[in-house]
Amino acid sequence: MDLYNDSHEKVCILSGTKETCITSTLKTGDKEITFEFRKTNRYAADIKEEGYIRTDTDEFVIKQVEPSGEWYKCTGTLNVEELEGKQYPQGFETVEKTVDECLTEAIDRTGWKVIRCDVSKKRTIRIEQNCSAWDVAQQAITTYRCEMVFDSLNKGISVYEKYGEDRGAYFIERLNLKRLQVQSNSYDFATRLIPIGKDGLMLNIDGKSYVENHQYSKKVKTMTWKDERYTDAESLKEDAEAKLDELSKPYRSYTAEIINLVEAVQDEKKKEQYKEVFSMALGDTVLLISKSTGIRESHRIVKFYEYPLTKEKNKVELANTRLSFEEVQRTEQELS
């Protein structure tokens, strides 16, 4: 890791650190770095808030330095300062545009650019209070149901319908799954969703104003979703079906402590074999197998805790949905 001061002048290559962890979050595209360094470190006085930490793949802004015994703990956030600094005091709006067009307008003259976009649908972004280009990007993730990767070194934004792959990887007890924590609930559960657009726009599907999904249960549980940015019934129906696909099953998430077998073995032949079934990254779909809990399900990696210096500590969070109903309804609250 390289340390830079707040003027972006390189100070040193950091050494003598421990517990370095980079946390990547699928939902926002954001990242965070934490590490510890001794109070007696030669450059301890230079590791301070608003300086920068640069790794091989990212740059972070130091936001907190706190004492912890003989050590200090440093926390940094992904460097998106130009996006945060591009302000829209009166709010921001793009009407029926692609996410590429929306972002290109929002990030104009920031030095950032959209370098990849797999999403072609047109939607409306409307933020009526003051916001930043970063806020617009976060709203776009929800509105366009897409996922973004922010390249903080090259100032590039990649937009995906669905980021990651299904490489055939799996976690299984007694092999590469050390510990599993499970969270499951159906607080946001619904099987029928009534969507309402601008000026009371509603669906008419063979006389029905709602969409249904009984993939998990035959019971009828109805909720209403209102978003006045929708003026087209087909777009309203498409997004309602996508949201209900997530709401119509219980939310499940898992924190899995894993053994990175690719890194653990020294034999190069075995390493190549393990790469085929145990390589994984943020957004990937993996099969989770736990005999002790009776789980055999496929889930996506929604958060990755990577320890570059001690890879055996790596952890991942898995989940079966991206949005809760609270997040679905947030658009209505923003427009009210």
From TrEMBL:
User: What InterPro entries does this protein's entry cite?
Assistant: Phage_tail_spike_N, Tail_dom
Q: Which domain of life is it from?
A: Bacteria
Pfam families referenced in this protein's UniProt entry, alphabetically? Prophage_tail (PF06605)
Query: What are the Tail spike domain coordinates in residue numbering?
Result: 93-329
Q: Which NCBIfam families match?
A: put_anti_recept (TIGR01665)
The identity of this protein, by name, is Tail spike domain-containing protein
